[in-house]
Design goal:
199 residues; alpha+beta; 8 helices; 15% strand
């Protein structure tokens, strides 16, 4: 029998992944009964003897968003991505994900879903889940009025740490309003840095 190959971030897995790795559904129930696996949600399991990852909630919700082929659809974004990248002081009470426009799955309460078609250059892989890149995160923040207050600090922090360049922000596609917010935030960041260097 083929055993599940578990990487440090793969301690969470779906019933389909287990089946593809050689465990029939009755055998999966046995693993739960023996206590080797912990059932976290319907069709989602966790290996008991592995240490908990830093964001098990994001891993779990990512798996819950999987399509019929088993591919997770949700990408952590907006204020959640700001917090993960540690740009601005965003600490959202709800978790933000971006999902494809046709996404229809019901997700738990406390999750905010934004619908957009992301390309592979818009996200990066973290420990068991995907998150929008700093650039995409800032652009999303500029399009989401509820997050506008975080934008100046997000731009400043990202520029200071070399996560983005001013030219990337200023040349990015978007509506006129989005470009206005980005331009204002870049100018504020540059002025803030000039003042810092003066003292």
């Amino acid at each position: 029998r083929v055993k599940i190959s578990i990487q440090p971030f793969e301690r969470y897995f779906t019933a389909k992944q287990a089946f593809d790795a050689g465990y029939t559904y009755p055998e999966q129930h046995q693993q739960v009964r023996y206590g080797t696996w912990i059932r976290e949600e319907r069709g989602i399991y966790r290996l008991r003897d592995y240490p908990s990852p830093s964001r098990p909630d994001l891993i779990l919700y990512s798996l819950m968003s999987a399509d019929r082929s088993g591919q997770p659809q949700a990408v952590a974004s907006h204020e959640t991505a700001l917090a993960l990248h540690e740009i601005s002081d965003a600490n959202p009470a709800r978790i933000h994900f971006t999902v494809p426009p046709g996404f229809r799955k019901k997700m738990p309460k406390g999750i905010v879903l934004h619908k957009a078609q992301l390309s592979e250059r818009d996200w990066e892989q973290h420990e068991g889940y995907r998150v929008t890149t700093p650039l995409r995160t800032i652009l999303d923040t500029a399009t989401w009025p509820a997050s506008w207050a975080y934008l100046p600090d997000a731009v400043y922090d990202a520029l200071q740490r070399g996560l983005v360049r001013s030219s990337q922000l200023l040349l990015a596609d978007g509506t006129e309003e989005t470009k206005k917010w980005i331009r204002s935030a870049v100018e504020a960041a540059e002025e803030r840095e000039r003042r810092r260097l003066q003292y």
